[in-house]
Specification:
The chain has about 240 residues and is α/β, with parallel strands linked by helices. The protein has one domain: 3-Layer(aba) Sandwich (Rossmann fold). Helix content is about 40%, strand content about 25%. The chain is built from ten helices and ten strands. Strands 6-7-8-3-9-10 form a six-stranded mixed β-sheet, with helices on both faces.
């Protein structure tokens, strides 16, 4: 039996008078890739930022392996095993690739573990190994996205949060990144991926939630949602 890695119940988030999340429920099973889909402004990024502690919930609970994390500081949540690759890459532009990755390993105290992390991310992203001494700002958009994901993986997270990893990238690079998401899952890491690119994401996801204006409009196994006529019309276009 799979364990529940993350359980969200009645989650509400407010920005002043605006309710960005209106009481959502989600369950993420250990070892799954769970997609959160929806248009701009649906509440996808807000959901991830609340899970990682960057936004405090107004109501509701977030349980990570049965421990309430809804009110914890972001660094505590990171130490427990949740890492986020933020929207828009946000790499440290003036640091080298290797220095960026070292920042990602800040929760690891064991040098051997850090060495293992480097080995692992260079296996996923060989191009980063080739460019390890290169300044991050000189990388292409796709390489910067790979670096952002690799940096989040350096801490050996139990759950990896990916925010719009395909944004602004060429289709071939998107395919590469989705293949790497599949590999990460196959090695046992749970992944929550926020995306507008529903067609590509549903190919790698086990389960998906569709957010519309702060509420979940539909959810189910990715295999089933891929063939949902309403969803195809709204998000998948003619892919």
């Amino acid at each position: 039996m799979k364990k529940t890695a993350l359980y969200i119940k009645g989650l509400k988030v407010r920005y002043g008078a605006i309710e960005a999340l209106k009481g959502i429920d989600m369950e993420v099973m250990e070892g799954d890739v769970v997609a959160i889909l929806g248009a701009n402004g649906a509440g996808k990024t807000t959901t991830l930022r609340t899970i990682s502690g960057l936004i405090e919930p107004a109501e509701g609970s977030i349980l990570f392996y049965n421990k309430e994390i809804g009110k914890l500081e972001p660094n505590k949540i990171a130490q427990m095993g949740i890492a986020q690759s933020p929207e828009g890459r946000q790499v440290f532009r003036d640091l080298t690739v290797e220095e960026n990755l070292k920042v990602g390993a800040f929760t690891l105290k064991d040098k051997k573990k850090v060495a293992e992390s480097f080995e692992r991310v260079y296996r996923y992203f060989p191009v980063l190994k080739e460019r390890k001494n290169q300044i991050a700002s000189t990388l292409s958009g796709g390489e910067q996205q790979m670096l952002a994901i690799a940096r989040a993986l350096m801490s050996h997270p139990k759950i990896l949060l990916l925010d719009e990893p395909s944004l602004g990238l060429a289709p071939l690079i998107i395919r590469d990144i989705m293949n790497i998401v599949r590999e990460i899952k196959n090695e046992g890491t749970t992944v929550i991926i926020v995306e507008q690119n529903a067609a590509q994401t549903l190919k790698v996801a086990d389960y998906a939630y569709v957010l519309e204006l702060g509420t979940i409009s539909t959810h189910g196994p990715a295999e089933i949602l891929k063939n949902d006529p309403k969803l195809i019309e709204a998000y998948l276009g003619s892919h």
